[in-house]
From TrEMBL:
Gene Ontology cellular component annotations, sorted alphabetically: cytoplasm
Native source species: Trichocladium antarcticum
Superkingdom in the source lineage: Eukaryota
Name recorded for this polypeptide: Uncharacterized protein
UniProt-listed InterPro entries: Glutathione-S-Trfase_C_sf, GST_Omega/HSP26
Coiled coil feature spans: none
Length: 91
């Protein structure tokens, strides 16, 4: 399994599996948000995590379920404003 993880495009090799399907929505959304609001820099393309995200984003089935990046930024901005209005800082 470790060999497949290290060599494959997806979690368990060259084909998507249930692990990819379950984690993809969270991973892809999180990859779009922290840069904007916490100064987080994305991993370099050589890192396994980034290769996996790139594979997910290039998959037409995954792409068809995603909203435009601007949607996530607007949603996060609305959430941040909501927290600030309640006396909290940005999330």
């Amino acid at each position: 399994m470790l060999t497949q993880l290290e060599q494959g495009t997806y979690f368990l090799g060259d084909h998507m599996c249930l692990v990819d399907v379950h984690l993809a929505p969270f991973a892809l959304r999180l990859s779009r948000l922290p840069q904007q609001f916490r100064g987080w820099t994305p991993p370099s393309p050589q890192i396994r995590w980034q290769k996996w995200l790139d594979a997910l984003e290039s998959n037409p089935h995954v792409r068809s379920t995603m909203s435009a990046p601007a949607f996530y930024m607007r949603s996060m901005d609305d959430l941040r404003k909501s927290f600030q209005g309640k006396g909290g800082g940005p999330p």
